[in-house]
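Exercise 7. Given the encoded structure of a 415-residue chain, write a plausible sequence.
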């Protein structure tokens, strides 16, 4: 009986520590107020998030082409009617919106979309950011910063001061996944590159990367990769990684984050909502980590079937940090499974979650929902320790939880 009380007590302490932990959200698509229209916020942006677009079109009341012809407000109206009024909103994406409304103190039971709009419209950008960070228990987020984006680039070129709660990460997708068009753009910016990746082009790409890491203060470089990603590979992407990305990562001391397993535009008419998931080769990660032991790699993979092999790979390489439940894995049943598996294989030496949020308010629900699942998984592990007679102090629990929710990321960066 005493042992049972001990395990229940430690469970409560762990859940409390997770609930109170401050978060560093190491991968988002959020922006600070200085980035103007790139910062998405409010109920209409939440409702037109691409997950809910796909769910809405599935019901057949509108074709994708007809959906996109509507204004943002009309799209939100249709999503609300289809997913929240005509059917019960039980998907994780729908539930997330209800969590946001409830945490802001709004009457979810009223189903009054106009009242929700009035509430969000009444907040200034600064007030909105402050309140969301408070509700989410988040201290800092890492943006996704693309120098090829026509709206974002001028903001950086004008040396705009960024809210320090928003750190930068340099996104290199155009370089690695669309070299032919990226090289055209680089030439217009004064980089002496050709379509052929010769030694001179390599030097210029490295110069470009170094300049943008310095300009943005990027914590890491990142790329989203298809399910058929291979390394090494005799392709522009393979050459750019080997001769440009990795040398710069080593020289500047920044990790290279790879998000692997996307099948782009499976249904193009859905636009961003039309991407899907594919099984990838973990062997490419093994070869990167083994071939470049002085470079740090942060990796998340999209297919559920890749998760076990990726965690086992992380056991073999100290320069590999597994992070998050990305995109289609960011659902409670899968977060629970993956978190438990990683804890069993890696202990506390991983980053269990990131929000991947595209709308400011999403970090409220994504972290609330994930905290509950991660807290229960951790509580089980500490209860198992207590059952053996091993005692953990509150300070030790807070230390471990702090590592998972931000400390491991900071340490891996070397900061």
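Solution.
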């Amino acid at each position: 009986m005493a042992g049972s009380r001990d395990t229940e007590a430690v469970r409560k302490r762990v859940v409390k520590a997770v609930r109170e932990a401050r978060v560093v959200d190491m991968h988002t698509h959020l922006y600070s107020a200085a980035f103007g229209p790139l910062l998405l916020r409010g109920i209409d942006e939440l409702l037109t998030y691409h997950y809910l677009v796909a769910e809405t079109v599935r019901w057949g009341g509108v074709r994708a082409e007809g959906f996109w012809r509507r204004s943002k407000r009309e799209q939100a109206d249709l999503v609300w009617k289809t997913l929240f009024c005509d059917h019960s909103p039980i998907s994780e994406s729908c539930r997330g919106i209800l969590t946001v409304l409830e945490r802001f103190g709004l009457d979810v039971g009223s189903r009054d979309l106009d009242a929700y709009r009035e509430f969000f419209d009444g907040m200034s950008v600064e007030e909105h950011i402050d309140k969301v960070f408070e509700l989410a228990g988040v201290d800092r987020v890492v943006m996704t910063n693309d120098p090829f984006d026509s709206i974002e680039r001028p903001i950086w070129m004008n040396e705009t001061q960024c809210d320090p709660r928003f750190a930068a990460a340099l996104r290199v997708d155009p370089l690695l996944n669309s070299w032919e068009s990226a090289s055209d753009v680089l030439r217009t910016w004064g980089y002496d590159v050709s379509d052929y990746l010769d030694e001179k082009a390599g030097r210029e790409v490295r110069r470009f990367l170094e300049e943008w890491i310095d300009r943005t203060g990027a914590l890491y470089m990142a790329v989203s990769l298809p399910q058929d990603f291979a390394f090494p590979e005799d392709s522009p992407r393979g050459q750019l990684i080997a001769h440009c990305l990795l040398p710069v990562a080593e020289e500047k001391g920044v990790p290279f984050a790879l998000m692997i397993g996307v099948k782009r535009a499976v249904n193009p008419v859905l636009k961003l909502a039309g991407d899907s998931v594919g099984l990838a080769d973990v062997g490419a990660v093994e070869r990167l980590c083994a071939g470049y032991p002085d470079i740090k790699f942060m990796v998340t993979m999209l297919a559920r079937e890749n998760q076990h092999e990726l965690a086992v790979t992380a056991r073999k390489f100290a320069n590999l940090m597994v992070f998050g439940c990305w995109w289609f894995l960011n659902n409670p049943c899968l977060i629970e499974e993956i978190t438990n598996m990683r804890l069993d294989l890696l202990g506390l030496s991983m980053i269990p979650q990131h929000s991947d949020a595209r709308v400011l308010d999403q970090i409220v629900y994504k972290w609330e929902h994930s905290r509950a699942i991660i807290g229960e998984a951790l509580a089980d592990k500490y209860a198992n320790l207590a059952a053996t007679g091993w005692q953990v102090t509150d300070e030790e629990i807070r230390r471990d939880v702090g590592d998972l929710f931000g400390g491991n990321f900071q340490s891996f960066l070397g900061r």
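Remark. The beta strands are 23-25, 138-142, 166-167, 170-171, 221-226, 256-263, 276-277, 297-301, 320-322. Students should compare their own answers with the one above.
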